[in-house]
Structures are given as structure tokens and as C-alpha cells.
Structure to design on (101 residues):
């Protein structure tokens, strides 16, 4: 049973990003979203660790974040944080699909 280190790192990055946004800007919504998506992505990484074919939760959270942050990036044209999170989420989707092949 191989641990999904990349999935757990992605989840931690989302959670830490929410905390950083809260401490710098005082954004409670960013804190809630970061911790929520970080928790869901962490659970998804746990599911992938238990069964490498069980990517549904990880794929769902990555897909949702790609759409949401991609739209924010398109509107704001700011790389941080929307562009970075959208790009990382898209890379996670590609990785998860690759694991299924």
C-alpha cells in the first residue's frame, strides 16, 4: 500500500493557503474554503492510499477547484492565488486520470 504523498501535499497546500489568506487579509471565506477543500482533498488522498483506483473524491475536489479558481483567474488575471490553485488542481486531475489508465 503506497501512500499518496502528492495528494496529501496538495491537501496541505490548500489548507495552509486558506490560513495564510486569513492571516494576511482577514478573509474568513478563504479560511473556510481552504480548510474545507483541504479536508476533502486529504480524505481523497486517504482513499487513494487505501485503494489506488478509488479517485472519486480527489477527482471531484480537484475538478471543482479547477473550475472555481479558473473562473476567478480569468476574471482577475492574477496568478496568485487563483491561477496557481487552478493550475495545481488541473495537474491533480491529470495525475488522477493517469493513475486510472
Amino acid at each position: 500500500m503506497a501512500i499518496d504523498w502528492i495528494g496529501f501535499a496538495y491537501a496541505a497546500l490548500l489548507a495552509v493557503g486558506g490560513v495564510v489568506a486569513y492571516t494576511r487579509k482577514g478573509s474568513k471565506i478563504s479560511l473556510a474554503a481552504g480548510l474545507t477543500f483541504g479536508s476533502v482533498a486529504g480524505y481523497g488522498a486517504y482513499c487513494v492510499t487505501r485503494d489506488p483506483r478509488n479517485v472519486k473524491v480527489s477527482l471531484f475536489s480537484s475538478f471543482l477547484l479547477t473550475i472555481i479558481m479558473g473562473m476567478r483567474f480569468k476574471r482577475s488575471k492574477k496568478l496568485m492565488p487563483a491561477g496557481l490553485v487552478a493550475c495545481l488542481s488541473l495537474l491533480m486531475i491529470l495525475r488522477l486520470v493517469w493513475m486510472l489508465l
About this structure: The two ends are 18 Å apart (CA to CA). Residues 28-50 form the longest helix (23 residues).
